[in-house]
Design a protein that fits this description.
Elements: H1 3-9, E1 11-16, H2 23-30, E2 51-57, E3 60-68, E4 74-80, H3 89-103, E5 108-111, H4 120-129, E6 133-134, E7 140-143, H5 169-184
InterPro entries: Acyl_CoA_acyltransferase, GNAT_dom
Organism: Blastococcus mobilis
Region (Disordered): 151-216
Length: 216
């Protein structure tokens, strides 16, 4: 077992049933370089939208994964604290987010690396190396609906090897309501030059992506 595999073997993926802005999020997002997300003041205890998970290493939170499936596929976000980057924590979170999306019967996970990201090229290459492909509108997309395909690091002994479980009936009912509400929302063809200035946890935004530019 390699050192990276040994480290990721002890990581835990923990659902945050009541996601709120707290000290752990403040600590981790403070280490994210400027330009990755919109700098936005958050109030301690502020309720955050959509679904969040914590990545824990020995009980310490070292990262977060975020997923919004309102638009039919899954827009995802992940953040890992500076000290844990390069240890496999990011790939662990990505693989788990793909499993969550596949378990819900979704077809794709999507991510956007903003033009203002200081390491845009390197991060884009990281996603490409994990099976994503670029689209004409700048999104990165990966198919996860076909379980016969490689999802994340689905090789033996690596994160993401567990069988995906379907969400409970309560969650499925909520997803159905959200999709119906999204379908009924009036849409506009007006574009938003310069991209979105939405930050992590922005209401129904997909984190830092512009929902008007990412309909599917």
């Amino acid at each position: 077992m390699t050192e990276t595999e040994a480290r990721t073997a002890r990581l835990a993926w923990v659902k945050d049933d009541d996601p709120r802005w707290d000290a752990d999020r403040e600590r981790i997002f403070a280490t994210v370089p400027e330009g990755v997300f919109r700098a936005e003041a958050r109030t301690p205890g502020e309720r955050l939208s959509s679904d969040w998970w914590r990545v824990e290493d020995g009980g310490r939170v070292v990262g977060y994964g975020w997923l919004d499936d309102v638009w039919g596929d899954a827009e995802i976000l992940l953040a890992v604290e500076e000290a844990a980057r390069g240890t496999g924590a990011g790939a662990f979170a990505l693989a788990r987010l793909e499993e969550e999306a596949a378990a819900r019967g979704l077809n794709y996970v999507l991510n956007v690396v903003r033009d203002t990201h200081p390491d845009r090229t390197a991060v884009t290459e990281w996603f490409l190396a994990h099976g994503f492909t670029g689209t004409e509108d700048g999104r990165l997309r990966k198919r996860v609906g076909d379980r016969a395909r490689d999802i994340g690091q689905h090789q033996a002994g690596r994160p993401g090897t567990s069988k995906a479980e379907l969400p409970d009936q309560g969650h499925q009912a909520r997803y159905a309501v959200e999709r119906e509400r999204a379908a009924a929302r009036p849409r506009t063809d007006v574009e938003h030059p310069g991209g979105s200035d939405l930050g992590p946890g922005a209401e129904e935004s997909g984190g830092y992506v512009d929902q008007e530019q990412h309909r599917f």
